[in-house]
Design goal:
With about 60 residues, the chain is mainly beta. About 0% of the residues lie in helices and about 40% in strands.
Length: about 60
């Protein structure tokens, strides 16, 4: 997935109240899982990011 926001907060859970555990810059690419909950896409076991600011990279299978 590619980040479309200027800075995208990565959270510990799928919600705005979850702790911020990292940040991704615009155009950064990250692996992601096909799991979306409460508008957040699961990046890995304890990292979630707002799906609205992620877009599939060509050839990706997580969409």
């Amino acid at each position: 997935m590619k980040v479309t926001a200027d800075i995208l907060n990565v959270r510990a859970g799928p919600g705005m109240a979850a702790e911020i555990v990292g940040k991704l810059r615009q155009e950064a690419e990250t692996e992601a899982q096909p799991v979306v909950r409460n508008g957040f896409r699961k990046i890995d076991d304890s990292r979630w990011a707002a799906d609205a600011f992620l877009e599939p990279v060509s050839g990706a299978s997580c969409g």
